[in-house]
Amino acid sequence: MERRVFLGYLVTIAAGLSFGFIPIIVALLRDLDVSILEQTFLRLFFGGITGFLGLMGYIKWKREKFNLAIRKEVQKTYIWQGLIFTVAIMVYIGSIILDTPVGEAALLIQVHPLITLILGALLLNELVDRRKIYSLVLGFTGLILLTRPWEGEEFFSSFLGDLLATLNGVLYAIYLVIGASSVKIRAKIPSFLSIFWVLVWGFVWGIMIIVILYLLPFNSEFLSFNLQSLTLTSVLVLGVFLAILGSILPYGLIMLSNKYEIESSIQSILLLGEPIAAVILGYLVLTEPITSWYLFGGFFLLLAIINILSTAN
Fold first, then answer.
1. Which of 171, 40, 180 is nearest to 96 (CA)?
2. In sequence order, which residues have a C-beta less than 8 Å from that of residue 8 and are 6 or more positions away?
3. Which of 106, 191, 179 is nearest to 146 (CA)?
4. Which of 77, 201, 210, 251 is 20 to 30 A from 243 via CA?
5. Domain range for residue 50?
6. pTM reported for the whole predicted model
7. pLDDT per residue over 139-192, tens digit each?
């Protein structure tokens, strides 16, 4: 395997592991009675501040790169990714707050490799070959073992939460495909400049969506919003970690992965490390048990990733 390709794969795997922190931090904030809108605001606010400061840095020290990124055709991709990024954040947080177990939520999201494979083939002419099919079969075998859908009562204990987690997987796939389709027009734009723009646009979209949802006549504690509750030190600290480990780091690594020209369908398979990290962190932080099914399922997920690594050109 070429060193460049290998580094790209490692970056993508690291992004998947970082995503595993999201459900853990969301669950901790949920236990502090922080609502969907409040958690979404925290994640987008700290991410938006980082993005804005990053853009100011580029304006001052690397203006020529900044000018490349403000072209209309480039900004369209950032705007769309910012929207998908924001909605995905909201539905993921919603799934955890609606009591979908952390491990289960992280697993249901993993429908994205199949969606990405289909979209990548249809929209980007990415090849559907045996190694991808084998990895998908291994990955979904692992997911089935981890989620145990035959245990109907437990698996569907939070239907709406499970639905939101699955929807996030679809949004995840769309985000990856947009990124992969934008490689050429972003070729001379640094990865971090791209993620800064996505974070800023995500914050803009997020404020609009939060205001709309808050004003709608939904009588639900899940959609409450109180700035005062966000001033607690514990909430602010968790909010910073959620923004860094759940937004800035993983999405920045995905942007970097695009620079290595990793296909979206391969990206999606390599990101299957997310549920493994979530299950381990769920045990360490939330004392959620690691069952034998988790071990079997995690083994198949690792095989899916190893298959991609071992058969890469």
1. 40
2. 257, 259, 260, 261, 262
3. 106
4. 77
5. 3-310
6. 0.81
7. 777 767 766 666 655 555 567 777 888 888 889 889 888 988 888 888 888 888
